[in-house]
């Protein structure tokens, strides 16, 4: 069991790492990877049953990154957990690499290739349905973007998830309210997003997507969701943790300059130092 | 007596047999269990059947998730929608992710006749054969459909199959003992004067044409190219080298289908005179399959005429 403080520390280190990686590759989805970092940290270091030494363990929980473009945080986490060597992160987006700009199931720990939006939830429905039909207990987690909610195929899958009563399925929306052209509400209004998912028959939980207590509670599931799939609507900040990238649509795939990388690392180091103080004051367990 | 069993029914029979001993065989339908002739499967194996409603993108995504979890899903959905509406799911969730999904386009080609271009699928071969890692198959009759169904269930990987809606005259005898081998053409008739290459429902037409030609002393080889991908290039090169001329017949656009695939091989390895018969670049005319085929020259009589013209060029004389 990781403590909340350990998770916070981990996600700050992941943020530093992914910025270095994007800076090195001169390309990547900076804003979204920073906004989903806490969700992924909660899943991979605490919630999901999985074993980096046995990536194909039959009863492992499954993760599908439907918003596949925000893969940088995922690469950093998989490397940190030992799915592949840490040094390989330096090959991100380079000629011939398997660490491309979207999930690639040639890499241990990646279940499905994604990148085209609106695909992940249907695939997750299939995985969850297979578990139900086979009487297996694994759970399936699918991370979606909020801009991605405009894809009609998501709503086809949402219907099927409720129809087949897949309470082993958890959809998560990284609700950072921005997409490449600006505010999600200006591009194609989504609200009331929670009520839309409720109307489709899902158990909806709205959380602060950077608050580990709320995230862990929602992702671990609740008996209230029996017979229904769960949708975790995670309110997040695009660019979270880096002052000059937060809530800036242009940081969707902006690459930090040398100076910006230095400043971002200083800010994240300061946050890490602040955590050490927090640790001395309390020893709360997740 | 004419055959009354459509290929889709033969496929359902094969799947019922397979499911008896394999609980991972699954059938998915998009409100299409009736037109796919899969209602008996849904009834006998409800736990191995999944209904998705009219949602062709979803059915392919769900099948990919099932396959990822060890199932062997057969998606049965009209070819016109499956090969177009769901093509991105086929490309990404099946071919790119490497999931073991069998995509069965039912009522394929111009089977829907008078329903118009929205319901015709004469671009499906062109689209699917361009996707890496996807096999493309068109069985010729009910007997081949049954064998093919069992063969692709054994095969590990994504497959697109197109079958028609209506019963097709038998190409094979009931007790034909030839195996169905993915990627291996079947030489249905030996011949040295020219080769007719067909797939799916046009194989019967090619055989009839070969018989007509035989009456004039012209010996046509007939190849049933049931697998368009991976293509049996060896059989095509041998046909070009040994017979010197080729006519292809397909229930598909003349662009990008069987004829194009054959031309890609002959043009590079053994150029010979080649004629491509298929649906021209227009919304196909309304009518029953035989009427539409005849209208576009996919008939034994027209193939015979064309063959004789080609042979004049290559110097082979009718006897």
TrEMBL record, chain A:
<dbReference type="Pfam" id="PF00456">
    <property type="entry name" value="Transketolase_N"/>
</dbReference>
<feature type="domain" description="Transketolase N-terminal">
    <location>
        <begin position="18"/>
        <end position="268"/>
    </location>
</feature>
<dbReference type="InterPro" id="IPR005474">
    <property type="entry name" value="Transketolase_N"/>
</dbReference>
<keyword id="KW-0786">Thiamine pyrophosphate</keyword>
<dbReference type="InterPro" id="IPR029061">
    <property type="entry name" value="THDP-binding"/>
</dbReference>
<comment type="similarity">
    <text>Belongs to the transketolase family.</text>
</comment>
<protein>
    <submittedName>
        <fullName>Transketolase</fullName>
    </submittedName>
</protein>
From TrEMBL, chain B:
<comment type="similarity">
    <text>Belongs to the transketolase family.</text>
</comment>
<protein>
    <submittedName>
        <fullName>Transketolase</fullName>
    </submittedName>
</protein>
<dbReference type="Pfam" id="PF02779">
    <property type="entry name" value="Transket_pyr"/>
</dbReference>
<dbReference type="InterPro" id="IPR005475">
    <property type="entry name" value="Transketolase-like_Pyr-bd"/>
</dbReference>
<keyword id="KW-0786">Thiamine pyrophosphate</keyword>
<dbReference type="InterPro" id="IPR029061">
    <property type="entry name" value="THDP-binding"/>
</dbReference>
<dbReference type="Pfam" id="PF02780">
    <property type="entry name" value="Transketolase_C"/>
</dbReference>
<dbReference type="InterPro" id="IPR051157">
    <property type="entry name" value="PDH/Transketolase"/>
</dbReference>
<dbReference type="InterPro" id="IPR033248">
    <property type="entry name" value="Transketolase_C"/>
</dbReference>
<dbReference type="InterPro" id="IPR009014">
    <property type="entry name" value="Transketo_C/PFOR_II"/>
</dbReference>
<feature type="domain" description="Transketolase-like pyrimidine-binding">
    <location>
        <begin position="5"/>
        <end position="171"/>
    </location>
</feature>
